[in-house]
Amino acid sequence: MSDMADIKIKCPNCGAILTVADSPANVKKSVKCPVCKEKHKYTEFKLYQPKNDDSDRTQLGLSPSTDVNTKLPQMPRVVTFGYLVHDGYQKKYTLTSGVNLIGRKTYQSASPASIAIETGDLGFSRRHLYIEAIKGPDGVIRHYAYNAANKNETTINGVPLGAGDKVILHDSDVIHSADTTLVFKVSELPFHQASNDSDKTVI
């Protein structure tokens, strides 16, 4: 069993934060960023030191092809894709597997967003937020939120979503920007845990 500590590194291309095992052998390896899909030498990643130890805002799983191990963040046993509720309008927007682009619905032309929110709030950008839904090897679906081309700051439960942040969403999290509020919800179904399942799955 390894006694190596975990460290956080920042993608030189998109700024995503990854959690990896701190090993001298890493310097000879390459890492494929799970957000922008670009592959870089490990030495090109900068060490990231967050102001607080909020792992939900920094831990990312690397692709299975990478040589550097990361741990999947511990999550409730969610096995269905989540959805957004437009607060005040009570309209439901269902998320799908992969990357969902959340933005304001436009009527002059086709909306660039895959999840187009019907709102008159011009402060909510047409390309405002990404929510990426990924099913891990442990069967749990994790939803990650990160910025798109939003002009106004987005907060999740009152905490600003910074550049390079990729936040894990939990049931009833409140996403707010300008005059638009969205509530993230999940439908939790019974999850049959395998006998060898671990909350610290290494991929």
Could you characterize the architecture of this molecule?
This protein is mostly beta strands and 203 residues long. 0% of the residues lie in helices and 33% in strands. It is globular and about 55 Å long. The relative contact order is 0.18.
Q: Globular, elongated, flat, extended or rod-shaped: what is the shape?
A: globular
Alpha-carbon distance between the two ends: 16 Å
Low-confidence stretches: 57-70, 189-203
What topology, given as strand order, has the largest sheet?
7-6-16-15-12-13
What name is given to the CATH topology of the largest domain?
Answer: Tumour Suppressor Smad4
Radius of gyration: 18 Å
Number of helical segments with 4 or more residues: 0
Order of helices and strands: EEEEEEEEEEEEEEEE
The tally of beta strands, per DSSP, is: 16
Query: Which percent bin holds the helix content?
Result: under 10%
- What CATH architecture of the largest domain do you see? Sandwich
Strand content: 25-35%
CATH class assignment of the largest domain: Mainly Beta
| Class by SSE composition | mainly beta
The main pleated sheet reads as: 6 strands, antiparallel
> Into how many domains do the coordinates divide?
2
Mean pLDDT, all residues = 76
Give the SSE map.
Layout: E1 6-10, E2 17-21, E3 30-32, E4 39-41, E5 46-48, E6 83-86, E7 91-94, E8 98-104, E9 115-117, E10 129-135, E11 141-147, E12 155-156, E13 159-160, E14 167-168, E15 174-177, E16 180-185
Parallel strand pairs: 8-9
Antiparallel strand pairs: 1-2, 1-5, 3-4, 6-7, 6-16, 8-10, 10-11, 11-14, 12-13, 12-15, 15-16
